[in-house]
Specification:
It is an enzyme of class 2 (transferase). The chain is an alpha/beta fold. It has helices at residues 14-20, 26-35, 47-64, 80-87, 99-112, 123-129, 149-159, 175-188, 205-214; strands at residues 70-74, 91-96, 116-120, 134-140, 160-171, 217-228, 233-237, 243-250. It is globular. The termini are far apart. Mean pLDDT is 92; it is low at 1-19. The protein binds S-adenosyl-L-homocysteine.
Length: 252
Amino acid sequence: MPSSGKKKSPEPTVTEQQTHTPNVDAGEIAKFNALAEQWWDPNSQFRPLHDINPLRLNYIDERVSLPSKKVIDIGCGGGLLSEGMARRGAEVTGIDMGEAPLAVARIHAEHAGVAVEYLQIPAEQIAEQRAGQYDVVTCLEMLEHVPDPSSVIRACATLVKPGGQVFFSTINRNPKAFMFAIVGAEYVLRLLPRGTHEYAKLIKPSELAGWARDAGLDVQDTAGMVYNPLTQVYKLNRDVSVNYLMHARKGD
Ligand code: SAH
């Protein structure tokens, strides 16, 4: 994180927000900014996100019934999930700190004729402005890029209505996850650019569940997203040893 010797101006610009917001890693945002143009190309380095998108959309839709639900997608990137949920009838807001992915998301939604509100704002800040306004909060493949994931999880819990649903996904931290998600995906199969994921920032399901509970969320389900490199197919199952999704609910 860059040091900030300057005084905060009363109305920070977007660039100053990025620099001064403590829970944003500018290096991580830069990585995604640099690649953003390829976001909707299913044969690009975003292929894994394209491949898992139908699985996670179905997982979420089965649990919340997306039509007419008010949803906020935290760390939405180029909008694969946000736009997918909007196409299924949800009223979606997507937030991210990357300017380029948001620009790509906006253009894609406009061309597709799908209404999505995209905003460049930190999760903690929108949580102050829109507490308790959402039926569903999604935060997928983002927590492992943030300095303090527990703070984002608290923001998600603040944004959701009592009785509402929250979904997280990330990568487990263990030797197998290191071999598959970093060595396999970044160095052997080259599905992702080298340096996409840092081992120390990966998150165990027990840690995620603990932070969710501390934020007032009850974990309902945890599902594994498993990739078979031979068939090149992802499936949802009970094996959470590498990629996984978590569904939590806020108490009434
Ligand atoms: N959730 C999307 C994109 C995942 S890629 C999907 O699963 O399809 C990770 C995204 O998190 C990138 O777009 C990156 O810009 C964003 N990100 C990383 N740190 C962030 C932060 N502190 N606040 C908001 N977004 C962040």
